[in-house]
Amino acid sequence: MSTDTSPTAQNVDLSDLQGQVEALRSDLADLQNQDDTNRMTIIATKGSLDMAYPPLILASTAAAFDWDVTVFHTFWGLDILHEEKSKKLKLSAVGNPSMPMPNALAAVPGMDALATRMLARKIDENGTASIQELLDLSLESGVELQACGMTMDLMGYDAEDLYDGVTTHVGAATALQHMADADIQLLV
After folding, report:
1. Is 128 within a domain?
2. pLDDT tens sequence across 162-178
3. How many CB atoms lie within 10 A of CB 19?
4. In angstroms, rounded to a whole number, what is the distance separating the alpha carbons of residues 49 and 123?
5. Among 20, 77, 116, 143, who pairs with 44 as Cys (CB 3.0-4.6 Å)?
6. What's the pLDDT tens digit per position in 97-122?
7. Residue 66 class from Cβ within 10 Å (0-12 exposed, 13-18 middle, 19+ buried)?
8. Are 162 and 132 in contact (CB under 8 A)?
């Protein structure tokens, strides 16, 4: 009885082997041709003046590096995309641990307006881009700004209320798909 296990002893079918090699070459070519674009999805949930900046700065910066960026705006984050409300975003003094005042003082009527004016002045003095400028830059850079459909309905917003170029009535399933395909997912 022979224990020879050489290829000739096993009667290897060369055409079968060639097919396997071609399949491997094809798989390798597909891997080499894959799009190596970085993808980022940001979920913007807050619409205060101080919380409007992070998603827009991150999105526009990533887009400048040729990243594929989507920002899904839901609940109060939708106010960032609202043409009128985005111009009147406020800063809350109460419950803000970074405010240099105790909550008892921050709760005094007019403190939110004062805090908003102080931040707006700092933004202006520093030459920091406005929310509207960051929105324009993001859209021009190819960032997909999405408005949650459920939140639009809940808040009574129409597509006409939002900036031109915003993708409206996006559902949670679509947002989840973007997140699943992204290299980076952020909740702001």
Report:
1. yes
2. 999 999 999 999 999 99
3. 11
4. 11
5. 77
6. 777 777 778 788 888 898 889 889 99
7. exposed
8. no
Question: Is residue 67 a contact partner of residue 39, using CB atoms and an 8 Å limit?
Answer: yes
Q: What's the CA dihedral at 180, 181, 186, 188 to 10 degrees?
A: -80
Contacts of 40 (CB under 8 A, 6+ apart): 58, 59, 62, 67, 68, 69, 70, 182, 183, 184, 185, 186
The answer to the question of residue 181 being in a domain is yes
Model's pTM, two decimal places?
A: 0.77
Domain of residue 108, CATH code? 3.40.1260.10
109: containing domain: 39-187
Contact 72, 175 (CB under 8 A): yes
In angstroms, the CA 28 to CA 155 distance is: 50
